C-alpha cells in the first residue's frame, strides 16, 4: 500500500492564519454533512512548489451550493451560486473561495463544451487539463492534509514538467494548448516530451475553438507577469499564427512589452488593450480589423487598437523635424492616452517620440484663457466665428505667440480690425 503523504505542515507554514481557519471550518462542515472536501488545482500545485497562492479552489463530493451557503452564514460572506453547474463562490473581507461539486466530464466533439454529471474526486481529477493540476488535498478533520494524487502530478511538479492527462486532451479542448504554454512559462517548467509533440500536432484543432474562447485565453496570457515569454513560445511552436498568420513575437515585441511595464510600473501594470495594441502594431489596418472581428474584442479595446493604427499612419508627418506645437496638436489631439503611449513605444523614430511626449506632457494641457462667453463680451457674434477664433487662440497659445488673457484679447481685437 503506497505511503500517505500529508501536507498539513505545508498548509500551516505557507497559508495565512485566516485562510487556514476557513479551511478547517469548511472541512468540519463537510464532515458533519458526511461529505468529503478537497483543495484542488493551483493552490495545491503551488503549495508543493512553495509558492504563494490564495486562490482557493475546493471540490466537495456533494452539493457545493448548499455547503457554500452554510459556510457563508458563519462568515457573513456573500455567495454567488450557479445551481445548474454545481458551483458557488464565497466572498468575505478581502478573501474568496470557489466551491464545486465533484463531477465527471465527456466531450461530444472536439472544441465543444463538456457534458458534466456528478462524480467522485477521482472523476474530478481525471477531467483536469494537466497532471500538475490533478492533485488534491483532503481537508476533512479525519484526513486533513492528505494528498490524493492518482496521476503522478506530484512527481511532475518535482520534475518541473507539464504533462497532459491523455493523448486526446488537446483535441477535446484545444484551449489547453494555450494553458500549457502559460504554465510552462509562469512556473519555469518544460513541456513533457510526448506532450510537446502532441501540442505541435494539435495546433490545427485551435480552429475548433470560438474566437470568444481564444480571446479569453489570450487575455489570461496578457495578465501574466511577463506575457511575452508565453507569446514567444507560442510563436516558436506555431500557435500564435493560429490567431492571425501575421502575428509574431520576436525580440522587438519582447523588448517593447518590457518597456511597457517600465512605463506603467510601479503605479499600475499595462492593461490588456495596451498590450494588444502593441501586439497588433505591425499588422496592416485591414489585418487588425480581421483580428478584432475574430476575437470579438470589446468596443473600447477595439478603439485602442484602431487609434494606435491611425497614429502609426501619421508617423510620416510626426517624424518631420521642427513641427510647430500646434501642428503636433492637430495631428494627434483626440486620441486616447493608451493609444498614444502604445504608439510612442512602438514607433522607431526619436522625432515622433519627442512629438508624442510633447503632446502628452505639455500640449494637451494647454487651454485658452478666453472662452465662448469671453469672446461674446468682446463683440463676437455667436456662430462659426467663435469656433474659428477659439481654434486660432489655441494655436497661438500652443506656439507661444500669446501667453496671457490680455494678449488673447488683443489678438481678437486685431482679428476684428482686419
Structural summary, described in words:
There is one protein chain. By secondary structure, the chain is an alpha+beta fold. Among the domains are: 1-158, Beta Polymerase, domain 2 (2-Layer Sandwich); 299-365; 372-417, no CATH class. It is 53% helix and 11% strand. The chain contains 22 helices and eleven strands. It has helices at residues 8-14, 17-32, 42-49, 64-75, 121-126, 153-159, 169-172, 175-187, 193-201, 211-222, 227-236, 251-264, 272-279, 285-295, 299-313, 315-318, 325-332, 337-346, 350-361, 372-377, 384-398, 405-417, and strands at 37-40, 56-60, 78-82, 87-92, 95-101, 103-106, 115-118, 136-138, 147-148, 161-162, 190-191. α8 packs parallel to α10, α12 (251-264) runs antiparallel to α13 (272-279) and α13 (272-279) crosses α18. The longest helix is centred in the first third of the chain and has 16 residues, at 17-32. The radius of gyration is 29 Å and the shape is elongated.
List the helices and strands and how they pair.
Layout: H1 8-14, H2 17-32, E1 37-40, H3 42-49, E2 56-60, H4 64-75, E3 78-82, E4 87-92, E5 95-101, E6 103-106, E7 115-118, H5 121-126, E8 136-138, E9 147-148, H6 153-159, E10 161-162, H7 169-172, H8 175-187, E11 190-191, H9 193-201, H10 211-222, H11 227-236, H12 251-264, H13 272-279, H14 285-295, H15 299-313, H16 315-318, H17 325-332, H18 337-346, H19 350-361, H20 372-377, H21 384-398, H22 405-417
